[in-house]
What does this fold into?
Amino acid sequence: MEKILIPGVHFEDVPGQAKVKQLLQQIFENQRLAHAYLFSGNEGCGKLALATAFAAAILCESKTGKPCDQCKSCLLFKAGNHPNLFFVFPHPKSAKENEKQQVLQTIKTAPFQLRLPWNNPQISIEAIRQLRRELSLKTFDRQSRVIVIIDAHKMTQEATNAVLKVLEEPPERTHFLLLSAERESLLLTIISRCQIISLGILTDDEIEQELHKQSTIDDTTARLVARLSSGNLRRAFQLLEAGASELKEVAVEILRSSFKKHFELAIYGNEIAGKYERTQLKEILESLMLWLRDAFLISNLAWDEAQVGLTNLDEKEKLQKFSENFPGFQYNAALKEVETSIRMLERYVQPAVILIVLMRKLRKFAVKP
Ligand SMILES: [Zn+2]
It folds into this structure.
């Protein structure tokens, strides 16, 4: 079998979260390892990657909080098949074995690219029962065991109760790491059994760095994707996959089409609304906001000052041309309008209508009031 290399073996491999890493390190220094932790934080902030690195540290025989890379446990961990590391994740009963294996592979190799292939899956009582059966077996070499429960808030009531029972009387040397982006959906009785590890969202810079580490993209795309992803690295990777630069081109085209004749504008609005999904349309409009912000900076600041804050550095000429052609463009009003359109997309108003109304307004903002 092909060896899987788990990327997040060391805390340093995980982006950002300096304070949390320090805290986790201290747990080992103070020898205060608890039975259960709840990693709480927004989608895409690194809960899984950090929990995996924490698991590696718990399992390492050195017990220093830094995986030694040499002990039997570290070698098994790096090979991707540590017998004492369990991952529980939501999946439907009908999930195929190969689908589950694929998810497991992504968990281990690319935690930030994890996307469950099922519609609104849950963690069922069966999954917890199976886990308990496995836990009742003798531990490998009588070493520590770690159970990572991904999206713990997706446990059914029954599954929650079963986990609660285990947490009330945890087996020896067994550590539960619950992960959740929706801590408020968890039972208080579960939360009270866990030490809470709160993660913050990642900064644009941290996301940019990570994108560069894991893919070959140019600086401008990395910057654009980082700003569009709002601190969510998983979303950043999705955006990259979806072609962030294509979405930006559409954004600029929407702006350009605003100045066309009414019927042409309507045709374009319909075309774009039919071609992209709501989430993509949102990204297109967010991209448009970034572009308008850049144009605002260019028309109000000297180039030296403006370029520091620019997202679309590669569009310098287009941005300059726009600011020259429309010296009175009402940027603030336009940005507000785009924001309103984004909110309307969330409210299920017809996308074509939203786009056409937006374009008509953008055209008006080009003329001085
Ligand atoms: Zn080790």
Notes: The mean pLDDT is 89. Residues 243-365 form one domain.
